[in-house]
Give the backbone structure.
Amino acid sequence: MGFMKKQAATPLVYFTGDFAEAGASDPCHGKGEVGAELARQQILDIMNYDWLALRKALPGAKVFGCLGNHDSHPGDVFFGTTGDCPVDKCQKWQYDNLTALWGPDLSNDPAALATLKKGAYYATQPMKGLTVVALNIQYWDTQNSQIADKTSSAYAEGQEQFVWLAGVLAAAKKRGDAVHILGHQPPANKSWKARYYTKFMALCTQYKDTIKAQFYGHIHTDQWSLTRSCAASKPGAPYKETSRIKWCSGGGDWEPGNIFGAGNTSCPLVPKAWSDADVVSKCEAACTGSAECLGFTLYDNTTTKQGLRQCCFRTGSVASQPACPTCTARCYAKPRGEECNGEATGVIIPGPSLTEGWPATNPALRLLTFDAESFELLEMKTFYADLHAGNKKSPPSLDWQLEYDFRKKFGMADLSPASFEALHAKMASEGSALWQTYRGQGDGSLFCTKYDGKSAPFKPTDPCAVCDGACKSAWLQHLNGTATPP
């Protein structure tokens, strides 16, 4: 807070979710409804403390935030607010609090407060020519188990948020406003619900001249991605067969109907007399007829208790899943109706994390500089603080230092989508010094300069391993916005 307070003219602060680092849970307070109530109160207390501390430290700034997946109880689970829903199946306990907590920064605008109270998303105009849109990605992301049920209020809220967002963008364009979008899980994250990715990309394309910047959180690492236009894939495109990947294990989560005479389940058993070609053809036909189905797995008769082949239908993507040397099942990925690999329409920028828990990092924050009239992003300065050094002080305190200026470090003329495409091309070249600086040198690269993975109490996927070859190719696809979407 002290560091932010020292910066000259900070009119806007963007907080992209996860006020509570790992969410509150029953074990912290005991079991049952009493424990759940205490856990919900803990979430509110953490959010209230953080928000009020920011406003106190920066009295001249407007603070805008959005919710992260940890900002609920149980963690990741967000219900809707329809009707007289019970407290354990409703998000009113949180959203009612937000209208009071965030209201002053929204100038207590009735329209913003109404959507905030209903679904924790809002649009506001903090200054002439700028509209800030805060999304509740929990209604679009599969981490929230509630959106799997099409009859749930959470699923309905996700649909309504899309309609609302389209209206907000249309109104902003009509006014001539620039738009900044805030969210938690970035849209390139593979956990977005099937078809929501392309739906969002379509809005980004339609309003590419209106949306000037997008900021997210969640992933904790210093990266970016491009939004791209989508186009329909060629009709009659074949299913892609893959095997020996972990996606092949486990059951299905989409019911195809009684296609084999085995009942309507997500994993119907296949009649003995059917050939594999017949089974695949039947499964493809069933999956093709559903927007939710993204593929299926064909198990042989040695993997089921009944000794029969089984076809499991899924809504999860097979893209970029880890290898499984012992998996023998055959996976069939549905050809997507749309491919989002066209024109670059915008830039997605997740912020580095203020928390140090996953993976183990030193905290970081970014100072964003915008054009005063167009509100286009001009520069990003990333600052870090050394936790070990800070804890040795008496009393403990953090010394924030500049890590790098984005444009200066990467030699970019500006931060437009075209410049990010040019940066990608330079990094993709053989022996790219820029790639080695950013990601290719493991612990010695910019990507990991201020990480402290050696002191992590647990070891998640090492973000600081040397990344070249297939790793580089996959990573650059993500940065370029051409990796397979969910």
